[in-house]
Amino acid sequence: MADAQYILPNDIGVSSLDCREAFRLLSPTERLYAHHLSRAAWYGGLAVLLQTSPEAPYIYALLSRLFRAQDPDQLRQHALAEGLTEEEYQAFLVYAAGIYSNMGNYKSFGDTKFVPNLPKEKLERVILGSKAAQQNPAEVRSLWQTCGELMFSLEPRLRHLGLGKEGITTYFSGDCTMEDAKLAQDFLDSQNLSAYNTRLFKDVDQDGKPRYEVRLASVLGTESALHSEMTSRLKSYEFRGNHFQVTRGDYAPILQKVVEHLEKAKAYAANSRQEQMLAQYIESFTQGSIEAHKRGSRFWIQDKGPIVESYIGFIESYRDPFGSRGEFEGFVAMVNKAMSAKFECLVASAEQLLKELPWPPAFEKDKFLSPDFTSLDVLTFSGSGIPAGINIPNYDDLRQTEGFKNVSLGNVLAVAYATQREKLTFLEEDDKDLYIRWKGPSFDVQVGLHELLGHGSGKLFVQDEKGAFNFDQETVINPETGEQIQSWYRSGETWDSKFSTIASSYEECRAESVGLYLCLNPQVLEIFGFEGADAEDVIYVNWLNMVRAGLLALEFYTPEVSSWRQAHMQARFVILRVLLEAGEGLVTVTPTTGTDGRPDARVRLDRNKIRSVGKPALERFLRRLQVLKSTGDVAGGRALYEGYAAVTDAPPECFLTLRDTVLLRKESRKLIVQPNTRLEGSEVQLLEYEASAAGLIQSFSERFPEDGPELEEILTQLATADARFWKCPSEAPSGQA
Ligand SMILES: [Zn+2]
Asked: How far is the CA of 465 from the centre of ligand 1 (A)?
């Protein structure tokens, strides 16, 4: 069997994205708008197959054919009859679900390949004996012959995405090297063309000289007679003695379908900004123009706080080995009107709640400004993976002039925390049920407090360019020293510029601590609808979760370089340290041995000591954090924060050893089942699926009810047209030195 890192385990967590409540609260027009945007996103997401590996489009087409002819249950009967064990068939379902979730056979997080965890001969028997194969023997056999070998191959170069000999990519033809990528970037820069929607194909002419094709994604082909800002760019160029040809039409038939649904969505737009935004996206995908996408993004930024939020295009460049080509993604998310009302209530009570925070009034802003925070529930997220939050657009020039949107995706975050009981690590048995019962509600409380009152609280002491202070130097006293304020921010200095490397983690820590501290307030819990024993349970689970999160955070610490890879995780670890330091048995972290005989650990929180021991400890810590921040005391801030963030093997906790346990017990990344929307008459229905690999497969079987077979044909044709470009670098004819 394959190495564990190249398979998805049979017991992989699968969760459903829950957006029922938010969808229910949409108006009929909002639902129609969301539906067509969702269709556009799903169609466009198929381009990711072509952006991932040469074989991914064929694997997708093969799986889709199999499961259209027989659902996972029916195919199971056949598979068992062919001699597969239950485990082997489950491994196949998990593999198929993984292909759909990642839109290809490379993990979207980590970029490593995954292969089916069953013998190839057995899978071949299932495929060639399936109903799909009986219906279309030649096609199914041909698909299997094209992708079967590559599906299983773990040849070193195929194990991960990369350029040339380093790995697999379809952003570049197989013979492209890092030098080619740099040359092409210089060429694009010289022509003021963006790489976001391009791929690079290298060829050799009769004289053995390399020729580069820069191909833009668009509905229209290079020969189109329709004139636009792009047509003059589509031609041959000589650049530093090399031949470049700019063409377009990549993914054309797929983008055609995207455009059709964007046109339909436009009819249900909530305002003219959304209409103009969609018109520009349509222009962008039709012509291959990133400039049009930027214009669309400008309208998008100006469309503040819409009920139905979306973004679509070639957005994130993580998976281009050179880092400048964007992977297609499209999402549609909705304001959860019920949750927003609670958050608004919190903002309305801010003036009063901020007084509860453990610092003198002079350290608080003169007037509370609610931070720009939106929590949305995702209806659709197409592409290779679903993030828990977004901060876009990525165009730097737009971010400078127009700003950006920072959105938290509430139901995605909820999935990340929704763990089945048997997979709930590091908790005592008697805590597990309570944790599962209250994790969601306590998380809502913590998010609201963290984002609104956490990031929204506290004042920085500033002296402006004219020398004026925004605080009274005579009367304001530093509660830590009992003296007047000795340091502050001078004109031009900011929190980020002063605290640089620790700024974001420190601020996350402050916001998380505010959340823990203020959740003890009955008024806050009442806003979220909790009283009495329920309110006490919410508090307990919120604190317990933070303690557990602090332990889990160790995954993001790299001992080799003694550094944290993730600001938010570091912040949680710091809070765990603070609560441990409070002593009196408030929190304990104990190494144990699991039932499998391997290292394990338990975290405990004494719920009777939260107010008597935890609260005062948090109060002292929070006051110090705020005072050091307000006064711009970098040296003091670093000493405090880095002290808590240090990970050592010192007893009693031995965190470095615990880190190994955390890595050992780490749950693999969950698969997420998304719903479909369907237009019935003039009404949009939400179709939901079971949280299992079979449910995920079913959701994809029903995703393209009108044109599934046509799409598979399109994908394999597009893949075949470029197949000659993916030959191994060693076989490539040598170009000019
Ligand atoms: Zn935050």
From this structure: 30
